[in-house]
Design a protein that fits this description.
about 40% helix
Length: about 375
């Protein structure tokens, strides 16, 4: 049995007629830049995420980028994030001339360790005045531990940008009540990359926030800093969300919570049935109900790459998110980090593997995934 890592056709099939009609509506309208579909999606997602403002942009990367532009990040400024994430979390900082400074992850969640963040400020008192933002990543669909992160940020007067690109609808049980990520810090960044829980048919993204002035600035920056047209108070970029993407996402949005539930059910099935000595399954530290399982990432005890080859040979989809932490990326060598500086991030990069978790996955397919992993570790290691 072939089990893909992701099967977008299975999601598309029951929605196909509705999606084609929505795309045709945009085509026939001849409104191809921004327009009512983008505005409707912004309103609907603001309600879904529990925020005052959603601003559609061209990708999750550009959501982070335009947020940093709104904070006026410049050469010499420091933005703190983790070494273990998709490249954009640090790449957008460097793109503006800022310096990405890294703090270690928590090994249970792969998210920013608040104590590591606290220690960074203790050990780098001479750099604190240069820190202009903190970017915690809600990796794989589980919230970072935001209460202590926000306390540290408030202590030093530093804005928090949440990287929520893998976490639309993720909730966090704050001491002040359950919060939806993306509305806890100054802003959040959503991605509609096709593999996300709410995915488009191309790139797309969204900035979420509750600050009126910040939202107004982002709206200007996404459209070359212009308002009204041809009158530029800022130098921005072309970061507009395509209305065809908005139309498709409007079709999909009503199904999102059901897709979250199906992913949780699939995660529960793995949790109950996948048993390999030394294999660590995702730790839903706040409870499974707060996790959206954009990815189901296990940490294997050894022979990770051999396991991947075995799964591939047996038609079992899998992926490594992410094989090289930021501090070991060639383009970031100028930061001066070295192997061993972030051992938890390095361990995750060397031992983690993502298994199929998409909503349409059947238990029969999961049984095949489980059987092949168990089979691999029952075989004698190659000399």
């Amino acid at each position: 049995m072939k089990v893909p890592l992701l099967d977008l056709k299975a999601q598309l099939q029951p929605l196909s007629d509705e999606i084609h009609a929505a795309v045709a509506e945009v085509i026939n309208s001849t409104t191809y830049i921004m327009g009512p579909k983008v505005e409707e999606l912004e309103q609907r997602l603001a309600e879904y995420c529990g925020v005052k403002h959603c601003i559609g942009v061209s990708s999750g990367t550009d959501a982070l980028l335009v947020g940093l532009m709104a904070l006026e990040i410049k050469p010499g400024d420091i933005v703190i994030t983790t070494p273990y994430s998709f490249f954009a979390s640090a790449g957008v900082v460097a793109r503006l001339g800022g310096t990405p400074m890294l703090v270690e992850i928590d090994s249970l969640t792969f998210n920013m360790d608040p104590e590591a963040l606290r220690q960074w400020f203790v050990k780098n008192s001479d750099k604190i005045s240069r820190v202009k933002a903190i970017i915690p990543v809600h990796l794989f669909g589980q919230a970072a531990n935001m209460d202590p992160i926000m306390e540290i940020a408030r202590q030093y007067g530093i804005p928090v940008i949440e990287d929520t690109c893998q976490a639309i609808g993720t909730t966090y049980p704050s001491k002040n009540g359950t919060k939806v990520v993306g509305g806890i810090g100054l802003m959040g960044s959503l991605s509609f990359f096709p593999s996300k829980n709410l995915g488009g048919i191309g790139d797309g993204g969204m900035v979420t926030c509750n600050d009126d002035a910040f939202a107004d600035k982002v709206r200007k920056l996404r459209n070359h800093g212009a308002h009204p047209k041809y009158y530029h108070s800022l130098i921005g970029g072309n970061f507009r969300l395509d209305p065809i993407q908005a139309a498709v996402l409007l079709v999909k949005l009503p199904h999102l919570n059901n897709w979250h539930s199906a992913r949780r059910d699939n995660a529960h099935y793995y949790d109950e049935n996948l048993h390999v000595p030394g294999l660590a399954k995702p730790n839903a530290v706040y409870g499974r109900q707060h996790h959206i399982y954009n990815q189901y990432v296990v940490t294997v005890p050894n022979r990770r790459d051999e396991l991947r080859n075995f799964l591939n040979q047996n038609n079992i989809g899998n992926e490594v998110y992410y094989p090289v932490p930021f501090h070991l990326q060639e383009c970031f060598q100028y930061l001066g980090y070295k192997q061993g500086d972030f051992v938890k991030s390095e361990h995750g990069a060397q031992h983690s593997i993502a298994l199929p978790i998409y909503p349409e996955l059947t238990h029969e397919m999961q049984d095949q995934v489980i059987a092949k992993i168990v089979e691999f570790y029952s075989l004698a290691p190659r000399p």
